[in-house]
Write a structure and sequence with these properties.
Largest sheet of chain A: 2 strands, antiparallel
CATH architecture of chain A: Orthogonal Bundle
Structural class of chain A: mainly alpha
CATH class of chain A: Mainly Alpha
Distance between the termini of chain A: 45 Å
Order of helices and strands of chain A: HHHEEHHHH
Number of helices of chain A: 7
Oligomer: homodimer
Strand order of the largest sheet of chain A: 1-2
Radius of gyration of chain A: 23 Å
Helix content of chain A: 40-55%
CATH superfamily of chain A: Winged helix-like DNA-binding domain superfamily/Winged helix DNA-binding domain
Shape of chain A: elongated
Chain lengths: ~170, ~170
DNA sequence: ATCTTTATGGACCTATAATATCCATAATAG
DNA sequence: CTATTATGGATATTATAGGTCCATAAAGAT
């Protein structure tokens, strides 16, 4: 007897685990002494993730100029710039990519055509719109929502977390 | 010869296509005459998606009280409430689920323990914190970011899109 | 120079969610 | 009754996240 519990289970659009790893790793680097390199071994053990997997993420962070890496004995990672200058958004972008959160499935669909067609002639029949120039209004709202989140993430830095940790008393 | 273009390609955390379908379908229902039922055939053709797939999504929307469905000839879907009362967030929640966008990978990791441990005793060594009550500061920022987006999506209704379509001239 | 340590990048594997299809069934109007 | 329409279960397909392994390169230590 097979049990199927709601195969139509849906998860909220979520940040990947990699984003969590990246943020936590960077925070650890920020807390390390300046000039000290933290090895992948230490980072991986700290976060409870495999070295090989974490190293992929660190490598991306390096390519984006967020951390520096040194090979060889006593090598490892360090921040490439001040924690004040690293925003959550910077880190997330590296791991999650740079596309927008909402892409309209098919701008050529009848829906999009009809929608704009009817509204365009309501205001000015002479000015015929040209499909692609006319942004989908659903996307417009979704982009606005994303912008809100992005703005917030751009305002929060790694240093901010360290500061709030230092001043925070862990109340129950 | 095999070509691997950046197998570490990453996509931004994105809304599913289903969310797009749902939003566009609901907008179409909102534009239909009151009392008129729109069939899945019409909706699917409009959006350029299969009937069977869209019907799953519509079914979810029905279960959540956003649309009503009628079987039988001249059946179909209609909004279950005024377009003024349906926010983007309502729709998205149905399709994407209700979990938060960021879950900390492992609250028991050394990272989390150390981080709070050292900060807790800085402020008050006598009050020993108890792991789970102490929220991860990374998650705190991420939740804040999500809240920004959610708030925006709660303020934008389906009716809002119809209104802006009506007043909008499609400028190039 | 050589050895050890450490990061890098390519290839590969696996599990799961998103996307999609098909069909039997139920409900309803005419 | 019959035609129409939505529903829900089962299943298939595809892409991505998540993860492993290994050969190689780079740098410090001996």
């Amino acid at each position: 007897m097979k049990l199927y519990f709601n195969r139509w289970k849906v998860l909220l659009m979520q940040f990947s685990k990699s984003t969590g790893y990246a943020l936590h790793a960077i925070i650890h680097l920020a807390r390390a002494e300046r000039g000290h390199h933290v090895g992948i071994k230490e980072l991986a053990a700290l976060l409870g993730v495999s070295e090989s997997y974490l190293s992929k993420i660190m490598s991306k962070l390096r390519q984006d100029g967020i951390v520096r890496a040194m090979t060889g004995a006593s090598g490892g990672y360090e921040l490439a710039k001040s924690a004040k200058l690293i925003t959550f958004f910077d880190v997330i972008q590296v791991v999650e990519g740079r596309q927008t959160m909402y892409e309209c499935f098919n701008m050529d669909s009848l829906q999009h055509q009809l929608f704009f067609e009817s509204e365009a002639q309501a205001s000015d029949p002479s000015e015929h719109h040209e499909g692609q120039n006319c942004e989908c209004l659903v996307k417009k709202v979704m982009d606005g929502a994303e912008q809100q989140m992005v703005h917030y993430l751009q305002q929060h830095t790694i240093q901010g977390v360290l500061d709030s940790a230092a001043s925070k008393k862990c109340t129950k």
